[in-house]
Amino acid sequence: MLTDKPILVVDDEPHIRRVTELSMKPLGHPVLVAADGREALAIARRERPCIILLDHIMPIMDGQAALEELKNDPATRDIPVVILSARGQLAVGHYKGFEAATLFVSKPFSPTLLRQEIERLIQPALSI
User: Fold this and answer.
1) Inter-axis angle of helices 37-47 and 63-72, to 10 degrees?
2) Does domain 7-109 have CATH number 2.40.30.30?
3) pTM value?
4) Burial class (CB in 10 A: 0-12, 13-18, 19+), 58
5) 55 vs 12, 98, 101, 113, 128, CA distance in Å?
6) How far apart are alpha carbons 122 and 113 in whole angstroms?
7) Where are the domains of the chain?
8) Would you call 57 exposed, middle or buried from its count of C-beta atoms within 10 A (0-12, 13-18, 19+)?
9) Helices 14-24 and 111-125 meet at what angle, rounded to 10?
10) What is the pLDDT of residues 98-120, one digit of tens each?
C-alpha cells in the first residue's frame, strides 16, 4: 500500500541510516533521511511523516532534544517517534526525556523485526 506520508529515518551514522532506510522500503512509504536532530525537525515540519525513527546519540542536536521539540510543536506532536539507541539499558518511561517516545529499539536491531514494529505503529498513524 503506497501512501504519500513518508517515514523519516534520523541517524548520524551513514551505514545505520542506510540499513534502516532499506528496512523500511518494503512498507511502501517514501523514506526520508536526516543526519541530525536539527535536520530532522526541519524535515518533520515540512513533510509530516507518518513515523520518525530517531537515533539517541547524535551531534548538533541529539535524539532527546529533537524528541522534546517534536512533542512541543503542534505540527509534529502527534507523529509517533521510535528511539533507536546502542545504549540497551535505556527504556522508555525509565529514562528522563524519552517518556514521549512511542517505542524504544536497541541497536543492533533486526531489520525484519523493526519493520514489523513500524508497520504495526503506522497503521493508526495514517489517519493523522
Assistant:
1) 30
2) no
3) 0.87
4) buried
5) 8, 12, 12, 17, 23
6) 14
7) 7-109
8) middle
9) 60
10) 677 888 888 888 999 999 999 99
